[in-house]
Amino acid sequence: MKKQAYIFDAKTLVRQQHSGVLSTHSQTVEGYPFGSIVPYFMTSEGDLIIYISQIAQHTRNIQADHKVSMTIFDHLADDSQASGRVTVLGDAHLIEDTLVAEQYFSLFPQAEGYQQTHDFMFYKITPKRVRYIGGFGKIHWINKEDWLLALENWSKVSNGIVVHMNDDHQEAMQLILSHQFNVEVKHIKMLTAFCEGVHIQADNKIYFWPFDLPCITSTQVREQLVKATHQARAALTPQAC
Questions:
Q1: Domain range list for the chain
Q2: pLDDT at 82
Q3: For residue 155, is pLDDT > 60?
Q4: Which pTM does this prediction carry?
Q5: Which among 8, 24, 109, 211 could bridge 61 via Cys, Cβ 3.0 to 4.6 Å?
């Protein structure tokens, strides 16, 4: 399996999930790891963003030692040993970023009021190294140089794609969701566009639809969306006898 292919598979898995096990260095039981379940999203570059309370135990642990790991896996898989999982080892630091906040709250709208009640803040986990297991015999270490991407103006490109799809291609998104996830919805909205795929909100549920291959330009994203729309229309249109 070529390196770029398993990196793409690993990132797709991270995009498809919405929470992971955050491991920090315990300050109350010295020398032991402390695990907690934390929602996250991954930036276009490949960093993980978490939104955590300043009074939480894992936050206090991070403040004392910023070295952490996040383990991400498909919690619905029948066999967790045979399914894919990703462990990101990295450094967690407090950040303030308006764009990050907008992206996070679009995916986790219920979290927007947490700051006023529980003193939540954003932390960015910058990967040092990534471990990907795609199943039995598919085990890879990924260096940060290969994991992290430097995409200039991607936020502008992504926003343009999202606005265009929401304004002009509601039917196309409905077709894609119907074909890919077998769901019929009344209200649909694209939330994000990343190199590995897009998040689409269908009524009250969010789906991540992965691309066939990584896209680093708006043209490549458009080609993937057009292709998926044509495939969905062909698959869903009754054939004449």
A1: 3-147, 154-236
A2: 62
A3: yes
A4: 0.92
A5: 24
Average pLDDT, the chain: 91
Number of neighbouring beta carbons within 10 Å of residue 185: 18
What the block records as the tokens of 112 is 């927007």
Element (H, E) at 101: helix 98-107
The percent helix, strand, coil of the chain (3-state, each to 5) is 35, 35, 30
Alpha-carbon gap, residue 111 to 122, rounded angstroms: 11
**For residue 241, what pLDDT is reported?**
46
Query: 154-236 domain in CATH 1.10.287.130?
Result: no
Round to whole Å and give the CA distance between 2 and 178.
32
- Pairing state between β 197-202 and 205-210: antiparallel
Domain 3-147, CATH class in plain words = mainly beta
- What separation, in Å, do the N-terminal and C-terminal C-alpha atoms of the chain show? 42
Model confidence pLDDT, tens digit, residues 74-108: 877 666 666 789 999 999 999 999 999 999 999 99
